[in-house]
Every structure is written in C-alpha cells, then in structure tokens.
From TrEMBL, chains A, B:
GO terms for molecular function: DNA binding; DNA-binding transcription factor activity. The keyword Hydrolase does not apply. Keywords: DNA-binding, Transcription, Transcription regulation. Residues 1-68 form the HTH gntR-type domain. InterPro entries: Bact_HTH_transcr_reg (IPR050679), Chorismate_lyase_/UTRA_dom_sf (IPR028978), CP_lyase_PhnF (IPR012702), Tscrpt_reg_HTH_GntR (IPR000524), UTRA (IPR011663), WH-like_DNA-bd_sf (IPR036388), WH_DNA-bd_sf (IPR036390). The keyword Transcription applies. The gene is phnF. PROSITE patterns: HTH_GNTR. SUPFAM superfamilies: Chorismate lyase-like (SSF64288), Winged helix' DNA-binding domain (SSF46785). This is GntR family phosphonate transport system transcriptional regulator.
Length: 231, 231
DNA sequence: TCCCATTTGTACGTATGTATG
DNA sequence: CCATACATACGTACAAATGGG
C-alpha cells in the first residue's frame, strides 16, 4: 500500500475528529516524525488533501484546514440559491478593501471612460452560514464619491449610495460566465483550483442618465451557489 | 526564477512547435539531462502541464501530449455570447441520441411525475464555428410523443414540437450553475477536466397548463461561452 | 529596520517499485 | 524475462515567506 495515501487518509480522519476549518495542521516536519516517514512523503499526502480542497498551503505559516472531509461532496443538494439580479444590493456583504485606483483599458471600456482615469475599487465578501461564498469587485467611475465611499463598511452598497449620495443605480447589462478561480479568489473563498467560480459582470447606469456609474464582477463558489433567473 | 516553471514554459513551446496531440514527450530522464537538472525537477515541470490539461501521464509508457497550449488561453476575448433564454429553441443543435428511458427519482421530481415512469431523453450538441460548445439533455415527460420525436434530427426542438405535435412550451424556471465537466461532457465538448462547464437547468410547461412537459440541462464550455441576461 | 526561529517551497541526489511492450 | 519509463520513498540543503522580538 502506498505510504502517502495511508497518511493522507489518516490526516483526513484527524481533520474530521480534531480540527476545525481555519486551524493549522502540525508542521510537516512534525508529521513526518510522527508517521516515521520523510517530510516529502508527508508533503505528497498533503498534496492529496489540497487537491481535494480540504487544506490550503500557506508558505511560512502552515497548512490550513479548509473544511471537513464529509462536507466536500459536491453537487449533492443543499445548495444556496441566489437571485441573479440582486448584485450590489446584497445586505450581508462585508468590505474587504476600498481604494482609488487608475482604470485599466479593460475597466475603462466597461465604464465608458478614458483609460488612466482614477476610479474607486471596492472589494466585498459575502458570507452565508459562516462560509464565504461570493466575492465582488465593484468599480465606480466617479472618484468624487470617494470621501463618502471610504466609510462604507458593510451592508448594501446600492443602499449606501442612495443614503449617502442620493444616487440611484439601474442595471444596464448582465453577463454570466464561469472559470477556474484566481489565486486571490481561492484565498478569499477558501477553495482550491478544482472548484469553479461563477462570474457575473454587471454594468449599472445612473438613473435618468446613460452614463455607466458602476461595473461589478462577482465570483461565487459554483459548488455551493446556484442562481435562479426570475421570469 | 523558479527552474521548474521555466522548464514548464519551454516544454509548452516545444509542444506547440514540435508535438501533436497523441505524441509522447521524451522520457523524463532525457529531458532532465537536456535541461541539466534533476529528474524530479522535470517531473515538477510536467506536473504543471498535467494540471493545465496539456499532458497526460502513462506509467511505463510516457507522458502524452493532449493538446496545444495556444488552444487553452481562457477568457481572452473572442467569446461567444449566448442568450440565457433561448434554450431549446436553438436552431443549430444536432441530435446525438434519443431514446425512451425510465425516470430516476431526481428527474421525476423535476418533471413532476412519479419515478420509474417512461420519459423521452434527447441529447443534442450545439456547434458554433465548427467547435462543439454546448451539450443539452432534454427530458420530455410525455412518452406518447416518442413516435414523432424519434424522427427529430436537428434544428429547434421547440419548433419541431410545435410543427409536429402542435405543442407550445413556456419557460417555468431557470437555474444556473457551473461545475467541472463529466467524462461524457469532456468527450462531447472536446475539453478536459480543467475547463468548467456552465449548466443551465430549465423547466418548461405546456402552454395553458401547469404540467411540466420538458426539463433540460445544458452544459456549455465556460472558456468559450458567456451568457447575457436580457433586461 | 533588522534579526531570528519557524515553516513551507524548491532543487539536488539515490534507490527501489511497478507498469508497458 | 528484459529493457524502458514512470511512481514512490528515502535523504540533504538552501530559498522564501511569516511573525515576533
């Protein structure tokens, strides 16, 4: 029997019984000592856990438990179902970071502005039942909103814009795709590369105008989220 | 710069220039010698190619090239854009197979019928520009349609139903997700496991009734298709 | 800022097991 | 049975990231 597979299974059981998501496994060196094998063999075993999305490696820190083995049966019911049109008005989002950036060519095109202009970037993360499920990058074309926006912490972005700036937004377009997650998405959503993310790109106009005020890209864990379209 | 990454990139270029899908790379030992590195380092480089779906390992035989690197640049423009609501009415679909099957519990639930009943299954594949992009499984709850349906070869299913059976369907629900492709989807869409598929599940009622007449599951290559939602 | 201990990441070397033809 | 080629496992060393003093 392959050593790394038996170790991998033992670690799975350990995780189930003694660890919680967010915990760090013992250092590889210690595990190697405990199992009486070389550190490479432990690494190979942990590779399996990483490939199965159970564990995430953090250089210099350790190997973090993402979730329990019995929880990672994908696509077996118990999905969350989101509404496709609620983007930006989600009440339970939390701001990860917000800053002024210069618009890339691509972003400028989406926002209908000239490249190199300053825009506001806002990154929010949405949890449900304590699990991060969706990360959204909002791009706002009007840098004059910055003094107000930088105090936005959590809740509904569109609600905040209305309250703080008397601005109302109207959906102009919605595009829908899927792809393998970026490294940053893996980190924020606590997944690994094998779990696709669904991506929703929306453009929102200022109400009563046809200028694009906001462009947002949402990435949702495809193993936990399913969207419904309203008819 | 990390050695294994530069080797991996060199191998990608070699594959593009000198290898065809189905070819075998030189043995790892030879590559190690050629690059002046240890065999483990070559293995690590090939791991990257395997993870990107470029190469498959065959113990005792060698490492087989699956496809060319330039084919797998994902999400770099030149997407096809589909409309989310056109399912079943696609004119350019081609029937892969059609048959009478017994409904599983899951399908019965979706169709609102009892399990074990006979239903019609229709599998269609949609090409665009010669590339298979979307495979759809249609399930029709009324087996009496079978004599007519079994002659359906290509075109719009909903159009055919209207012409041949005077039946009109109306969308009742649309659900949207993404996941890694099944083996069958890999085969039909000519992709490998690293390319996610977007899945659209729809339920269609008989017009003027609320019985579900059709349940369909569409799987589209997420690297080539983006859907737009009409407002 | 800098140093240091800890921990993961990369790279080398060697040996043996296992599948293929 | 044999040669070839990939798979696993041992060992060693140093690089790179992290966090605390």
């Amino acid at each position: 029997m392959k050593v790394y597979l038996t170790i991998s299974r033992q670690l799975e059981m350990d995780i189930r019984d003694y660890f919680s998501p967010g915990d760090y496994l013992p250092p590889e060196a210690r595990l190697a000592e405990r199992f009486g094998v070389n550190r490479h063999t432990v690494r190979r075993a942990i590779d399996e856990l990483v490939a199965n999305g159970l564990v995430q490696r953090h250089q210099g820190k350790g190997n973090m438990v993402l979730r329990q083995p019995q929880q990672y049966r994908l696509h077996e019911g118990a999905h969350f179902t989101g509404c496709l049109l609620e983007q930006g008005s989600l009440p339970s989002s939390q701001v990860i970071c917000s800053r002024l950036v210069t618009a890339s060519d691509k972003l400028a095109r989406e926002l209908g502005i000239e490249p190199e202009q300053k825009i506001i970037q806002l990154q929010t993360l949405r949890h449900m039942e304590g699990i991060p499920r969706c990360v959204i990058n909002h791009y706002l074309s009007d840098p004059q909103w910055w003094p107000a926006i930088k105090h936005f912490q959590q809740g509904s972005l569109h609600g905040f814009l209305k309250r703080a700036l008397s601005v109302e937004l109207k959906r102009e377009s919605t595009r829908l795709g899927a792809r393998a997650p970026s490294n940053e998405e893996c980190r924020l959503l606590q997944i690994n590369k094998s779990v696709p993310v669904m991506r929703i790109k929306t453009r929102n106009q200022l109400k009563g105008s046809n200028r694009i005020a906001e462009y947002s890209v949402s990435s949702a864990r495809a193993d936990l989220i399913e969207y419904v379209v309203e008819h």
